[in-house]
Amino acid sequence: MSLRYLSARLAQQIDNELMSAAGAFSLDQLTELAGLACAQTLAKVYGVEKYNRVLVCCGPGNQGMSISKSLFGYKPAIYMPKVGSISRLHTQCKNMSIPTLGEDEESLRTALKSSDVILDAIFGFSFKGPNRAPFDSALSMISASGLPIVSVDIPSGWDVEAGNDAGFGLSPDVLVSLTAPKEGVRTFRGQHFLGGRFVPRTLEEKFGLNLPIYPGYEQIVDITEATRKL
Amino acid sequence: MSLRYLSARLAQQIDNELMSAAGAFSLDQLTELAGLACAQTLAKVYGVEKYNRVLVCCGPGNQGMSISKSLFGYKPAIYMPKVGSISRLHTQCKNMSIPTLGEDEESLRTALKSSDVILDAIFGFSFKGPNRAPFDSALSMISASGLPIVSVDIPSGWDVEAGNDAGFGLSPDVLVSLTAPKEGVRTFRGQHFLGGRFVPRTLEEKFGLNLPIYPGYEQIVDITEATRKL
């Protein structure tokens, strides 16, 4: 029985069920747990001594903020190609003295020079191309930096089902899928983790997810080997 | 500089500030993180092989539910001396097939015989005696069981400032204080952990908390030695 890759529709359906009256999760809860999982993934692969300065690239959602505040011991900085209204999680980051860079290209250029690793949380599984400004140049600059990249759920610029067929997506070294991996990342050949240790058995069985067993108290599980076989 | 013990008033004030517009935390977030910390404490002291069956004793709040669903690998069961309305967290526990016992004494008696360890989350820091029915007999029965007890924040029946002066409180083996230890637990001499890794430095400095450094990615830090010295 192998791990199931999710279509866009199924990924959305599982999210909806988790947050339905029956599933009973709040968005705050899921975001918090996913944030811990992503931060833990980065910490597992890129040790704090050598990779202290993390550039967390955030999209319209709140996931990047949640990860930033969970990067215990690191020096995160937040970059948003398009700064929106200040969310509660963004305020929490400010209270923790995590800086938010300007949204212009020059800020990103400077930040890339003084970062050790990229946490890519720009686009999630609902991204649909084409890749419009200012995100197009942001992705190009991040790729050109040559820094190691940890992507969340779907590498930014990839289609949730077609993957990086369009070619403008990031090429991360590490991927942390949330809840279950998506169709689009079947071809991903880097180090692959799974996070989102909150899916009830009933939901797992209903959708035949065949999730792996998380070790001990970890919020993540390494699925590199499991996905290589698929 | 030693760890500060909190009065009832100060504990409430810190909670209020965390959840104010400036602090920006939601109750869901804080409950989730505290739940992970408490579950991790139990797992650290009472290994899952020998102490698989955890009786989680819950009060009017939601903290016990949050702990129950984070007891990865264990077989938790929920006991509430007084069952209220079903919260979202309680629904999540039901979805995870965590049973909730009847609120009668016979259910508790039976459950105590088939449990390996107690997680005491009945009363928090806002408890004020006297200890009324049905909580009085529940505490007596839990004490009489002789099972090891992990208490959350304040052992149930203790006053947040006067401690167990009234004498009817539980005598836990392990305590996990949340945010910072409270005045009432100065005399506690068991194994003592601190959880609540979310207090921003500014708040810590404002109130002179002198919090210890949490190791690695842990949600808890052992403060047994630190509090012995105070």
Automatic annotation (TrEMBL), chains A, B:
**Could you cite one Gene Ontology molecular function of this protein?**
NAD(P)HX epimerase activity
Residues covered by the YjeF N-terminal domain: 11-211
Ranges that cross the membrane: none
Q: Cross-referenced SUPFAM superfamilies, in alphabetical order?
A: YjeF N-terminal domain-like (SSF64153)
Domain of life the protein comes from: Eukaryota
Q: What reaction is this protein's catalytic activity? A: (6R)-NADHX = (6S)-NADHX; (6R)-NADPHX = (6S)-NADPHX
Matching InterPro entries: YjeF_N_dom, YjeF_N_dom_sf, YJEFN_prot_NAXE-like
EC number from the UniProt entry? 5.1.99.6
Q: What single Pfam family name could you report for this chain, choosing any that match? A: YjeF_N
Please provide, in alphabetical order, the Gene Ontology terms of the cellular component aspect for this entry: mitochondrion
Alphabetized, the UniProt keywords read:
Isomerase, Metal-binding, NAD, NADP, Nucleotide-binding, Potassium
The answer, when asked if Methyltransferase is one of the entry's keywords, is no
Q: What is this protein called?
A: NAD(P)H-hydrate epimerase
Species of origin reads Mycena albidolilacea
